[in-house]
Write a structure and sequence with these properties.
- By secondary structure, the chain is of the alpha/beta class.
- It contains nine helices and seven strands, in the order H-H-E-H-E-E-H-E-H-E-H-E-H-H-H-E.
- The longest helix is centred in the middle third of the chain and has 28 residues.
- The termini are far apart.
- The relative contact order is 0.12.
Length: about 270
């Protein structure tokens, strides 16, 4: 009899434990979209390409976007959308810091601004080298310093997403300055993740393969140039701007709160091949 009672008690306890675990596992979370409503984000390089698409996606999620670019008048602004246009040369050390600091606290920063000088190694110019490193590496440091300082002042557990590239790790011809700048960015991101993580600020990279923006379609239209890369992509296509925006939105959201210091490859398997 006592053995039967013991077995029943154990069975009931196990059911109670499993029921508690099941409720925890099955607990409903708010949709990702709800996270962005009425929050503020900065997007650099917002005037065209991936930056323009990312800006549009954030606006569609009812976030306020501080859209930074050189040609900010090209940014559409529909009635009811919350966007502030700011002209900043990300390659300028002082003005980048000052203008982003003036924005005040935000919940996320997307460092998308970038340049590429297509020059063979033996013909790489000082201008091409300096401009690329200034915008793609140094500018990201400066923008992130200002944004992170504002987050820390308000104890915001924010997210910084840097747009890197697969060729930060796998070089291609005629891109020495670009490869160098994105390789540096990978290490910048890891260092930021280590130093800003204890402050509740996550830093991650999105590393695309070729992205078919308007300029990307022109730059990679020659099969002799694009073929060697395409042949190494198992999914058999290049990325679209929305593919990159999907990854950025995920890393900005509270669906990625344990992800820090990551290179997220949006490359169709290119880095695996």
């Amino acid at each position: 009899m006592f053995r039967s009672i013991y077995k029943l008690s154990t069975h009931l306890n196990n059911r109670c434990v499993m029921g508690t675990l099941s409720r925890g596992i099955a607990e409903k979370r708010p949709s990702m979209e709800k996270y962005f409503k009425d929050k503020s984000f900065i997007v650099t390089g917002a005037s065209a390409g991936m930056g323009k698409v990312i800006t549009g996606r954030l606006l569609g999620l009812d976030a306020h976007v501080f859209a930074i670019g050189r040609d900010i008048e090209s940014l559409p602004c529909k009635a009811g959308q919350k966007m502030t246009k700011i002209a900043v040369d990300i390659g300028d050390w002082d003005s980048t810091y000052c203008k982003i600091l003036e924005i005040g606290p935000v919940h996320g920063l997307v460092n998308n601004a970038g340049v590429a000088h297509i020059e063979p190694f033996l013909e790489t110019t000082q201008h091409g080298w300096d401009n690329t490193l200034n915008v793609n590496s140094r500018g990201i440091v400066r923008a992130s310093q200002a944004a992170a300082k504002n987050m820390i002042s308000e104890k915001i557990k924010g997210s910084i997403v840097n747009i890197s590239s697969t060729i930060s790790e796998r070089a291609i011809p005629d891109h020495v300055s670009y490869c160098a700048s994105k390789g540096a960015l990978n290490q910048i991101t890891r260092t930021m993740a280590i130093e800003l993580g204890p402050r509740g600020i996550r830093t991650n990279n999105v590393n695309p393969t070729v992205v078919l923006t308007t300029m990307g379609k022109i730059a990679w239209s020659d099969p002799k140039k694009s073929g060697p890369i395409m042949n190494r992509i198992p999914l058999g296509r290049f990325a679209e701007p929305n593919d990159i925006a999907d990854a950025v939105i995920f890393l900005l959201s509270d669906y990625s709160t344990m992800i820090n210091g990551l290179n997220l490859y949006v490359d169709g398997g290119y880095m695996a091949s």
